[in-house]
Amino acid sequence: AKLExxxxxxxxxxxxxxxxxxxxDVIPLPYLPLSSSPELQLMPRIDENTNFGGERNLMxxxxxxxxxxxxxxxxLRKDAITLQEKRDYLSMSMDLLxxxxxxxxxxxxxxxxxxxxxxxVHSRLATVELNVKTVRNAAQEECLHQVNVFIDSLIxxxxxxxSRQRCQMFLNACEGAPETGPGSSRDTCELSVDKKxxxxxxxxxxxxxxxxxxxxxxxxxxxxxxxxxx
Length: 230
Fold this sequence. Notes:
The protein is mainly α and 230 residues long. Among the domains are: 55-127; 138-177 and 188-229, Methane Monooxygenase Hydroxylase, Chain G, domain 1 (Up-down Bundle). It has helices at 55-98, 108-126, 138-156, 160-175, 195-202, 206-229, and strands spanning 2-7, 16-20, 42-46. The chain has a three-stranded antiparallel beta sheet with strand order 2-1-3, with no helix packed on it. Helix 1 (55-98) runs antiparallel to helix 2 and helix 3 (138-156) packs antiparallel against helix 5 (195-202). The radius of gyration is 26 Å and the shape is extended. The model is unreliable at 1-35 (pLDDT under 50).
């Protein structure tokens, strides 16, 4: 049995070639003609004139092809989620900057200039649209909305110390409050969990919970730097 592959027509020196033997473990998928990917740009297809030695063998080969498509789709989703997280991180960082107390030390015309500049950058960021759909029911949608409201309240708060404490309590809800022995000098907020936030968090999908934890880790890093510098 053999698997016939066609080179993408736009590639210079394109030609047809046959690959004899078993279906390879990894079958390359088609890429755009101008793609910079170093992978070989091949389009796999089954040669209908080939005797596969039975329907079961043919079925196995189709399954291997679909398995490879499935792997590529999963990789695409992960890459898109990474880009989505980068975009959300940029948006969150600009919101934090917009609410930074140091802006009050500027002259009014300077603040207006900075705000206009940030608005232009934010508008450019808004042109980047990424959407990796997570299947949620109505209850999960509502829980995610509540979690976002909690996190937005941290970003819009003018008190970095309180925001850091609440952010730590939210993080504890994500990973469990750290254990401590008697006589510990650790701050109470580092040992406790915000129960309302935890209730909303547990109602979210697992994918959403992972994303929420990443957002909170980025926020706590920012707040720690703010409180130390203050």
